[in-house]
Amino acid sequence: MSDNRIPSHNEFLARRFEAHRPHLRAVAYRMLGSAAEADDAVQETWFRLSRSDTAGVENLGGWLTTVVGRVCLDMLRSRRSRAEEPLEPLAGHARVADVSGGADPEQHAVLADSVGVALLVVLETLTPAERLAFVLHDLFAVPYEEVGEIVGRSPVAARQLASRARRRVQGADRVRGGDPGRRRAVVDAFLAAAREGDFEALVALLDPDVVARSDAGVNTGAVAVAKGASSFRHFAAVARPALVDGATGLAVYVDGRLDRTLAFAFVGDRIAGIDIVTSPERVAECEVTLL
Asked: Can you name the residues that pair with 212 across neighbouring β-strands?
């Protein structure tokens, strides 16, 4: 993680930057899903500020948001080319824009406030430009004109990017939506198929674009995730349906100790995302309620 201390020169500019740091970190965290990378992005934003002539900048906050957005966009593109490690669970809440298009603003507030497993999984399936457009506009009320400048597109194109991302996010059953009984039935079927090693049944339960995240990495696509589930077979025997941080999932106990958790996100009646936590530190932070 980068050293977040700002150089002592130009203390007035540094104080102005520090006043915006919480907002910039919130933007970067939701763009990148990693606290360490968010800190790196904010620090790079400071470096760019310290090397720029901002005497004519009337809205420093807006200028900084644009810069951190560009930094995050570059990092997302680089991550995608390197098949980056899985993201950390998102946390916290963001200010939500009253987006246009005839939708109920309250629905958008609920949508953007759902920053758990489901939204994380869906964001990871978006292109970097779609992700930036959705996060900046829907979560932080950045106008499409400014979003377009960051991604190098027109305001109309930026609106289309955010709209595509929004439809994808809205298509996922979040913790607050969907039928809990149906989700439980899908998870039960997944557990049964994993215990039996039934590959075809696993594929049928998974969305074609499913994303499975674990401490070891990321698998995408129903076939790849179903193959990966074969390694879960010996744990499936001791797994129990549970709510994991509010999401329908599985808790695996070994010798009476919580060993790992699986939290599921859904699109329709299929599993669209699986967040697998195995590290003892993260497992200890999970809130688990057996069903």
From this structure: 219, 274
3-state secondary structure of 210: strand
Cβ partners under 8 Å of residue 181, min gap 6: none
**Of the candidates 21, 175, 41, 24, the residue with the CA atom closest to the CA atom of residue 113:** 175
CA 51, CA 228: separation in Å to the nearest integer?
Answer: 47
- On whether the CB atoms of residues 120 and 30 are closer than 8 A, the answer is no
C-alpha–C-alpha distance, residues 154 and 260, integer Å? 45
pLDDT 10s digit of each residue in the chain, 291 long?
Answer: 455 655 444 777 888 899 999 889 888 887 887 777 888 999 999 999 988 887 778 888 889 999 999 999 888 888 666 544 444 443 333 333 333 333 443 444 333 334 445 565 667 677 888 889 988 888 888 889 999 999 889 999 999 998 888 877 766 544 444 577 888 899 999 999 998 889 999 999 998 878 787 766 677 788 988 888 877 778 888 899 998 877 889 999 998 899 999 988 887 788 888 888 888 887 887 888 888
